[in-house]
Amino acid sequence: MKRVMRILLPLSVAALAFPAWPQSSLPAGTRWLDHLNEELLPFWTTDSAFGNPFGAFPGTRCDDATLYDERNPCRDSSGTWLRFPAKSTAMA
Hints:
This protein has helices spanning about 1-15, 30-45. The protein is mostly helical. It has a domain at about 35-90. The radius of gyration is 24 Å and the shape is elongated.
């Protein structure tokens, strides 16, 4: 019983000394909706998002939501990891 008290007492003191506060800096609900509509849905509401054949989802997309093409790299990929062949960046 003494051992349990030795463990619980410091934990109780720490819980009282450092209470959990709610985050006051969360973005407004409109920011979450903007993020969904402007930043996420463009990548997932195109026919190419389902892959060819269906279910073979593309692993790399350009910032404008188009599929990555090694022969014609994305305009936004100047010198980034996107220039490597897909085989070398595949996740295990």
